[in-house]
């Protein structure tokens, strides 16, 4: 009971196997019919796709198939950005009307600060706390320009007449937030007229003198910025110098705000998954100027602060699975196209293969009657009628005659070799060399027999033009092959039906019923299956078991021919048996030619060959002559 259940469970479990081996019929030891054209098409298709895949993967490595999109993000409170000597450089000074920058602390002084406002909320009340940190400035020199990419840009300035951040005294500075946010930090540069309160290292000039000198001046200011190149996969930020230039005057007070925009590039560097690499920096976005007409000792304030709008760039590279699935789609299209081209050719070639193994086909060139007529032409009446046809046919016929001659030559050479083998027996040679020469001759005969069969084969040989006829559905009445194929195809298509095969199996059952008695049939079921011994190659085994067609030993062409020859001799000598008579009469003439080559009748056959070559007799007639001769002898 339990045993039964477990068996059932096993059977059900086995049904899950999706890798089951389908039951197949083979054709010529292959699972399907394959053609050379199909093989070429397949390799063409595969190499094309390999090429595409390699090109695509190469592009992927190069970052060529990139998609990018940019968005803007609004921040109420931009987060902190640190700046240091490698990515922040400032140069600025006031310019005289002749556009020459100058530093003169007896005229104007600059105070630089990092201004911080922290808003505290206590009891619903906002309290702003301002703190300031000095930003050390100094007269510029090339050593202070430490941003490598922009050294070239800044070297064009007259550095010693400009102010710079003194990187020897400060390591880094930062910007954060906006004016409304809880934390706000910005750089503030205050330009003031030199007076008792503001004076630094130098004594101030007289007030009128200063006012006059500053009446019509310019302000020159340089800072680093970036442009974004999304196509550059390693370094999307390209440094550039930003130059701000404006007028100033002692008569007005200017307030300039320079807004720095955060830019972020998200690069998807994952090959299969998304894996974003984030790069960010600040760039100059815009500046605003406000003018106050109140005359005071202030010339200008410059504030460097963050912008609230962040620019973001997303860069996606095509993923490997996307490439592969795209290629899969493309493959479907190309495969379908190739399939449409290949399918009819394959079908035709498949049926031709089946037809060739089932039928023999009369070859188009064979026109023996005309051949004969040409040999004895009637000069008066036939000349004109045939001259045109003759020209048309002549090439074909020459081919045919050559073919025929070839097969005859082969027959002759087989005969010669057989004679040689027999001659060796009578020669006085040592047995070993005799054996060897025999072996060689046997091999040669075997080869000749193969060639003979090739030369007399009546198979349909398809040329590519024949395929074109069929694919165009253009059946040329002059194209005998298409007629032959159509006819024979109709004949076999029924037999390829599984119902037909089942019917035939049933017929065998019926035959069994008719041929065997009831008790014989009962025993029949117990007939032993062929048993494969430990050494299947042993000679004894092949002799005892070879009535099973499945175990018939493989013989070479020569051996087969020799066997057939002996069997033929046997049949000819027992012509009383009607089956023998029928059998002989159904053998192809050309094969009879081969079989008739026997030691005792060599001369007779050479006469017969002459007959065959000269003129095609009715097959049965030839045989009857031959048989008559045998009976009389
Ligand atoms: C890039 O990846 C992001 C993140 O998944 C996605 O939202 C976006 O649509 C992708 N862009 C393109 C152009 O494929
Ligand atoms: C400047 O460089 C520092 C150190 O390399 C880095 O922490 C900072 O984020 C950079 N700032 C910008 C705006 O690129
Ligand atoms: C403008 O100047 C007047 C008089 O000189 C002074 O009272 C006033 O406070 C100044 N305003 C500002 C904003 O400095």
From TrEMBL:
Which Gene Ontology CC terms are recorded?
nucleus
Provenance organism: Paramecium sonneborni
Which superkingdom heads the taxonomic lineage of this protein's source?
A: Eukaryota
Task: Report keywords, A-Z.
Answer: Membrane, Transmembrane, Transmembrane helix
What name goes with this protein? Transmembrane protein
UniProt record, GO biological process: reciprocal meiotic recombination
Entry's transmembrane regions? 36-58
């Amino acid at each position: 009971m339990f045993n039964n259940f477990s068996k059932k469970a096993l059977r059900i479990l086995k049904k899950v196997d999706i890798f089951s081996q389908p039951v197949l019929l083979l054709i010529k030891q292959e699972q399907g019919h394959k053609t050379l054209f199909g093989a070429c098409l397949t390799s063409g298709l595969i190499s094309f796709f390999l090429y595409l895949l390699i090109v695509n993967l190469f592009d992927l490595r190069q970052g060529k198939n990139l998609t990018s999109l940019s968005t803007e993000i609004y921040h109420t409170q931009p987060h902190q950005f640190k700046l240091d000597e490698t990515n922040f450089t400032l140069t600025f000074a006031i310019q005289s009307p002749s556009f020459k920058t100058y530093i003169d602390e007896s005229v104007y002084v600059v105070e630089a600060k990092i201004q911080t406002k922290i808003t505290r909320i206590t009891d619903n009340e906002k309290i702003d706390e301002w703190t300031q940190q000095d930003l050390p400035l100094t007269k510029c020199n090339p050593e202070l320009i430490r941003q490598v990419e922009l050294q070239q840009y800044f070297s064009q300035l007259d550095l010693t007449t400009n102010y710079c951040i003194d990187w020897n005294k400060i390591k880094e500075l930062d910007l954060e937030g906006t004016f409304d946010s809880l934390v706000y930090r910005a750089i503030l540069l205050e330009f003031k007229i030199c007076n008792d309160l503001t004076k630094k290292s130098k004594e101030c000039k007289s007030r009128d003198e200063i006012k006059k000198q500053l009446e019509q001046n310019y302000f020159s200011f340089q800072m680093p910025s970036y442009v974004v190149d999304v196509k550059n996969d390693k370094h999307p930020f390209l440094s550039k110098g930003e130059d701000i230039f404006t007028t100033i005057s002692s008569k007005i007070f200017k307030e300039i705000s320079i807004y720095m925009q955060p830019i972020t590039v998200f690069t998807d560097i994952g090959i299969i998954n998304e894996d974003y690499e984030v790069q960010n920096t600040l760039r100059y976005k815009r500046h605003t100027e406000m003018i106050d007409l109140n005359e005071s000792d202030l010339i200008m304030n410059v504030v460097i602060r963050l912008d609230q709008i962040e620019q973001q760039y997303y860069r996606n590279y095509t993923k490997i699975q996307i490439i592969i699935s795209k290629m899969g789609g493309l493959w479907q299209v190309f495969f379908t196209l190739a399939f449409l081209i290949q399918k009819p050719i394959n079908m035709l070639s498949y049926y031709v293969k089946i037809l060739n193994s089932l039928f023999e086909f009369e070859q188009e060139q064979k026109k023996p009657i005309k051949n004969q007529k040409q040999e004895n032409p009637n000069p008066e009446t036939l000349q004109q009628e045939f001259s045109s046809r003759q020209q048309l046919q002549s090439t074909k016929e020459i081919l045919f005659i050559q073919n025929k001659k070839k097969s005859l030559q082969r027959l002759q050479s087989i005969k010669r070799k057989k004679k040689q083998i027999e001659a060796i027996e009578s020669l006085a040679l040592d047995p070993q060399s005799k054996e060897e020469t025999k072996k060689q001759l046997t091999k040669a005969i075997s080869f000749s027999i193969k060639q003979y069969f090739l030369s007399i084969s009546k198979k349909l040989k398809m040329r590519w033009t024949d395929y074109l006829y069929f694919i165009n559905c253009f059946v040329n009445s002059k194209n005998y092959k298409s007629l032959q194929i159509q006819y024979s195809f109709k004949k076999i298509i029924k037999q390829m039906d599984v119902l037909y095969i089942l019917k035939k199996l049933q017929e065998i059952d019926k035959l069994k019923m008719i041929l065997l008695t009831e008790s014989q049939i009962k025993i029949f079921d117990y007939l032993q299956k062929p048993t494969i011994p430990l050494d299947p190659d042993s000679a004894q085994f092949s002799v005892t078991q070879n009535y099973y067609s499945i175990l018939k030993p493989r013989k070479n062409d020569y051996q087969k021919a020799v066997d057939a020859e002996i069997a033929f001799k046997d049949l000819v000598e027992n012509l009383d048996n009607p089956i023998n008579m029928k059998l002989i009469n159904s053998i192809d003439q050309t094969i009879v030619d081969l079989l008739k080559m026997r030691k005792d009748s060599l001369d007779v056959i050479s006469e017969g060959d002459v007959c065959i070559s000269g003129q095609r007799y009715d097959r049965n007639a030839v045989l009857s002559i031959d048989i008559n001769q045998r009976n009389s002898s």
